[in-house]
Amino acid sequence: MTINKYKEILEQGVGSWNNWRERNMDNAAIDLSEILLENLDLSGIDFSMIILRGAKFQNVNLTSANLRCADLSMASMVSTNLSKADLTSAQLSMAGLSEINLSQAKLSGADLRGTNLRLANLDLADLDRVKLNMATLTGAKMVGAILIGANLSRADLKEANMAGTDFSRANLSEADLSHANLNVSTLVGTDLIGATLIDIDLSESNLSRANLIGANLYRANLSGCDLIGADLRGANCSEAYFIGADLSRSDLNRAEFTGANLSKTNLTGASIETTDFQGAIMPNVW
Fold it and tell me: Which residue among 40, 215, 234, 273 is least crowded, i.e. fewest CB within 10 A of its CB?
């Protein structure tokens, strides 16, 4: 079938399209590459396993749509609503998703490498095991999102709001999280090697066993954090706040804490033989 034939079915409404798909499940892969869809309400539509490579969506409602395993690589989605959509294992690499609504969407196992998600809404989204390597998420909202085991190496997360997010065992190596909000988040066993965390808010977060080797934590707020067993070798913690943090059994060798506030910090069993505490504030440390 041609794209125009597919569009004729789409124009008859979501019900007609979904019924047609149920009757034609044995058909070859449906290829809608480069299709232009404008000003349509496609909420609840079944686009699972469809090829939509390079497709252009403008002002399209895809709320609760089924896009499992769909190929949306290099697609452009302007003013598109994907809240509560199922994009499990979908291909979205190099797609244009800036300012898009993906709140409560299912993106587990999806490929979003190099994708533009600037100012996108990903609140409460399931991003378990997602690939976001080198993606742009500047100013994105990801409050309460799940990113367990996700790969965000070299991603741009500057000024993103990720409060209450679960990054357990995620890869954030060399990512830029400057000025981001990760208050009360979970980063247990997270890889933050070489990450840029300047002026980040990580207060009350759990970073136990996190790998922060060579990370830049200049003026970061880690007050009340659980950093038990964390590896901060060679990290720049100058002027950072560790008030009431638990750094017991952490490795702080070659780390720089110049001018940092370590008031009421627990350093029991920490490795500090080559740590630079010059000018640090350290009352009631044990």
Answer: 273
- In this structure, the dihedral spanned by the alpha carbons of residues 36, 39, 40 and 46, taken in order and rounded to 10 degrees, is 40
- DSSP-based helix, strand, coil % in the chain, nearest 5: 5, 20, 75
Q: State the Cα–Cα distance between residues 64 and 84, nearest whole angstrom.
A: 5
pLDDT tens-digit readout, 157-188: 999 999 999 999 999 999 999 999 999 999 99
CB 212 within 8 Å of CB 192: yes
Secondary structure (3-state) at 4: helix
Instruction: Name, in order, each residue with C-beta under 8 angstroms of 219's C-beta and a sequence gap of 6 or more.
Output: 198, 199, 238, 239, 240, 241
Smallest CA-to-CA distance from 200 within 187, 234, 188, 209 is with: 187
Distance between CA atoms of residues 129 and 110, nearest Å: 8
Q: Check: CB of residue 229 under 8 Å from CB of residue 246.
A: no
Q: Count of CB atoms within 10 A of residue 197's CB?
A: 30
**Considering the entire predicted model, what is its pTM?**
0.93
Whether 143 and 125 have beta carbons less than 8 Å apart is answered as: no
Rounded Cα gap, residues 269 and 275, in angstroms: 14
